[in-house]
Amino acid sequence: MLQTRLGFGALRQSSILFAARPFTTSSVRQIFPPPPQSIKGTVNDAAVFPPPSKLHGSYHWNFERIVAIAMVPQVMMPLFAGTSHPLLDAALACTMITHAHLGFESCIIDYFPKRRFHRIGPLMHWILRGFTVLTLIGVYEFNTNDIGLTEGIKKLWKA
Amino acid sequence: MMLATRMFHSLSPGFFRPASQLLRPSSISSSSSLLRNVWKRSVATEHMTEIESGSRLANQRLHRPNSPHLSIYEPQLTWYLSSIHRVTGVVLAGALYLFATGYLVAPLAGYSLDTETISGLLQQVPTWIKVPAKFAVSYPFTFHIYNGLRHLVWDTTKELTLKGVYRTGYAVLILSVLTSGYLSFVLVEYYV
């Protein structure tokens, strides 16, 4: 029967290596310093709810899953069956870049929330949009001038 | 002699409040039976505007420490695989973005990132470097694909128990190693 809990925590605490580690309360070892702070309003203002928007909600989640499901045949076919076609390259490029963009957006929302990062958060979103546009153009150029995504990966893999 | 020591500021006048500042209950003439043992204290307050208090709060927040989270949580398959899924996703998408923008930008610097040039460069790399490197490159790819399928399985409300999560997690790990091994160790010869 496979053990379902790895249980490394107890091992850590009982190890001699960690027994000598001092317990400190005042050492500041932050990886990331706190962001620039700006207080909006007072403590007596009511909580602000985000306005309802069709772009942020279950439609967005559905779109993410539809793109992910669409990627499954497009990736499995070249990878396991070796098929390759320019139209498949074009479709794979579109879905892959869309999937990457949605994933990066989730990362930015998680690590640079608008609530804490008033200017840097939206700025990162715009930088991502710029990079996505550049990537779309670059992949289009690659598919047009060069041999295409699937053929290119096959050729470089067996180079 | 005044060395650079901090003197306890209780020696400064005014640290200990005189007892007269504490009003005993008996001194209050109109005390009811309920308020018999309540002492009143005079408190010194400082007037601050909202902007001043906000800036003081912002200054305090800049010096506050963060609680540890990733470093103290018990290592578990659940969040380890979730972290690896996100890290591999960022790495793969970042590689795609960097390659595509590099393909656009490289001619401006005189280089060219087309497959002819890159395959010419790769042919000079010895096989004993290329095969492990291919495993290292293909493993994030296969892991992300299989873990993505695991997420889609969860979205159909299947395997959402603890046993199911661990079962699918081990399946993802095993399948990704096998597939990546096949891609890097078996697909070696160039088939025309």
How far is the N terminus from the C terminus of chain A? 44 Å
The CATH architecture assignment of the domain at 55-158 in chain A turns out to be Up-down Bundle
Radius of gyration of chain B: 34 Å
Instruction: Name the chain pair with the biggest interface and residue counts per chain.
Output: A-B, 45 and 51 residues
Q: Tell me, what is the CATH class of the domain at 55-158 in chain A?
A: Mainly Alpha
Helix/strand-derived category of chain A reads: mainly alpha
Compute the number of strand runs of chain B: 2
Large-scale geometry of chain B: elongated
Transmembrane segments (chain B): 87-106, 170-191
Protein name (chain B): Succinate dehydrogenase cytochrome b subunit
GO cellular component, one term (chain B): mitochondrial inner membrane
Subcellular location (chain B): Mitochondrion inner membrane
Description:
The complex is a heterodimer of chains A (159) and B (192). In chain A, 60% of the residues lie in helices and 0% in strands. Chain A has a domain at 55-158: Fumarate reductase/succinate dehydrogenase, transmembrane subunit (3 helical TM bundles of succinate and fumarate reductases, Up-down Bundle). In chain A, helix 3 (58-81) crosses helix 4 (86-111) and helix 4 (86-111) runs antiparallel to helix 5. Chain A is mainly alpha-helical and 159 residues long. In chain B, 55% of the residues lie in helices and 2% in strands. Chain B has a two-stranded antiparallel ribbon with strand order 1-2. The radius of gyration of chain B is 34 Å and the shape is elongated. The interface between A and B is large, with 45 and 51 residues.
Quick structural summary:
By secondary structure, chain A is an all-alpha fold.
